[in-house]
Amino acid sequence: MEAEVIVVGAGLSGLVAATEIADGGGRVLLLEREGEQDLGAQAWWSFGGLFLVDSPEQRRLGIRDSLELARQDWLGSASFEEPDGSDDHWPRRWAEAYLQFAAGEKREWLRSMGHRLFPVVGWAERGDGRAEGHGNSVPRFHLTWGTGPGLVEPFARRLAAHREAGRIALRTRHAVEDLLVEEGRVVGVRGSVLADDDSPRGAGSTREVVGDFEERAAAVLLATGGIGGNEELVRSLWPEELGTMPEGFVHGVPASVDGSGMLAAERAGARWIHRDRMWHYTEGIRNWDPVWRGHGIRILPGPSSLWIDACGHRLPAPAYPGFDTTGTLRHLRTTGHDHSWFVLTRKIIEKEFALSGSEQNPDLTGKDWKQVLGRVRPGAPGPVQAFLDRGEDFLQARDVEGLVDQMNALVGEDLIDARALERTIRARDAEVGNRFSKDAQITALRGARGYLGDRLIRTASPHRLLDPSAGPLIAVRLHVLLRKTLGGLETDLGGRVQREGVPGGGSLPGLYAAGEASGFGGGGIHGHNALEGTFLGGCLFSGRQAGQGILADLR
């Protein structure tokens, strides 16, 4: 097959773009550095959360959402630069287009391919406490029934049909290293053919080179992901506003997420903007059963756990579990230590702890309603219990003194004073016995219980942490989990990559980008901060837009 389009990367955005182009009659060569077992890339490992606005699922739960409210939340979080002629010109336009998509055809487009949603809508990134500031005013986190694999499956199925029909050729173990540029136009790619490797999905594969290749086409689309697995690159671009990058951290993505596509595009003359805008989680734990190097899992916390820094001081408002990821990270980087702690009870962990990722949620991933119903019964979910039993970051004790002894022993330093921590806990507990409170976290906890979805499966009933019937006490050590870059290759609404150093901008002919490589659209659709559930949706939307942009240019 003589391809008209080369798509580099078979993650979610690459699959969407390739199948969109093939649906429009284009012939596509899809190149992937890993094996076929890695189709879907990080989307497959994900929890499958999607940002939707005013959905039937929201309305059934009594959630009143609107495009106007979602726009207020997005812009309050993004804090785009002014004026519109700045580097945020295209990110701002992408944000508005994506909001229209999320409030419009997104749900039905997915549904037409067999995609389904879990009926309870989650409330992620509850905000910084300001109506006009960061955060979701209402629950918008729509969980894919089947988690990440359930989101990848419709596009993998479309890929298989197009391969059978000869419209898409997939070549795995092809590592693109450079773009071919002639007379100012990208005309193809070159790179190395890697040795076959049947390592499990996500595990590190061999980089043994067994050949090289060069391919040409009218259009090249980069869907190669971000930089989160490349520690050195993350460190070199770490934002100044977040202080110093931690020395100790865990990885939320494999080492293969190394920014190679973005670097190759930059060498070819592409414009990479907002390099220092990043999204890293503060609730990472070491995976007791790792798949990749330094494998970390993110806790998806409910609002009840007491969050303290490495020295036992309670974090300031609104640095509560699940409220403001970047704001909390900014504060923690001022403490002089790389870790922090959740202090909670058995009652809280049973009701509130969920672990991000398809492999940590076998009931939802396997679409097993019988197992899902177990979440409302007493006892911790199986994956959470496995971390309680085997995770190095999980500690249990009957009293504060015993818990603090273990916490200090785990870090090898007497950082926390047991009496001081107990005073903090008792002060917090004193606020629980009354329906009035000056403690903003207790107020937020009671507010969460007013939402049916939280009351059913995400928020424990308010109780004293030192109540013996709710125990034992639990401490969970938390690490920074490296994850995503929010900046990327600057693109217009057709996915066309913009040129570096050209007055007034303009695209680099022949080159397109989608997914995290494009900052999920435009070079940074989220601005400075994200609302959660927006990353997979950004891959879907940017892949679709780039595919349609390429078809328009080819025809």
Automatic annotation (TrEMBL):
The keyword Metal-binding does not apply. It comes from the Bacteria. Keywords: Flavoprotein, Oxidoreductase. One of its GO terms (molecular function) is steroid dehydrogenase activity, acting on the CH-CH group of donors. Residues 5-536 form the FAD-dependent oxidoreductase 2 FAD-binding domain. Transmembrane segments: none annotated. Pfam families: FAD_binding_2. NCBIfam families: PRK12834.1. This is FAD-binding dehydrogenase. The lineage of its organism: Bacteria, Bacillati, Actinomycetota, Actinomycetes, Micrococcales.
